[in-house]
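Re-run with default settings, no changes from the original entry. Doing this only to confirm the output is reproducible before filing.
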Amino acid sequence: MHKLLDPSESYTFSKFFEMKLSPRNVANEFGYSFERGNLNLPQYLGEIDRVKETSKRMAEVRPYVNLAREASRREVLIAPVILDLVYYTKAELEIEYPLKVNQQLQGIIDYFLESTKDFLIVEAKREDLDFGMTQLFSELIALDLWLEDQPQTLLLGAVTTGKAWEFAQLNRSRKHIIQGLEGYLIPKDLEELMRILIQALSAS
């Protein structure tokens, strides 16, 4: 198969977004298989008492904030979700986490969360979830290689504009990535989204 990347060049995660490659192209480039399908991600079943208050705060400030910029969406729509997630899971949070596996897989992960059970990465984009998913694929592949002999079988990542969230899941033993067809809108689907995120990081 014809290679899309020049082995003599360096690439960052954000470069994959700028190149407008498809998620399938990126998966195949690094030797992973690809499919689009329903992930049917498990949800946390316990009480999450902050969701209604978080949703209310978002609704109160949104009329007064220009959300055209990625930074604005991070502050108003994404950060409250991430901070509530840390509260519920006690996961370690790194913001703008640098990760380098090699010259073709390196860059900054917007939100990197690590619990005793698992890892979760979140990529924030101002727009264009489709090519944001391409960037997310490159980050999941880098994470898979970086973790080496760690026992996690599945790695989960999300890409979000703040208003919309989508997921992808990498099966490490099969070297297979699924781009989830499900989408979650904020604030309408906030509780369902939060239950998915909490379960992804909750110790079994």
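The first helix runs from residue 13 to 19. The radius of gyration is 17 Å.
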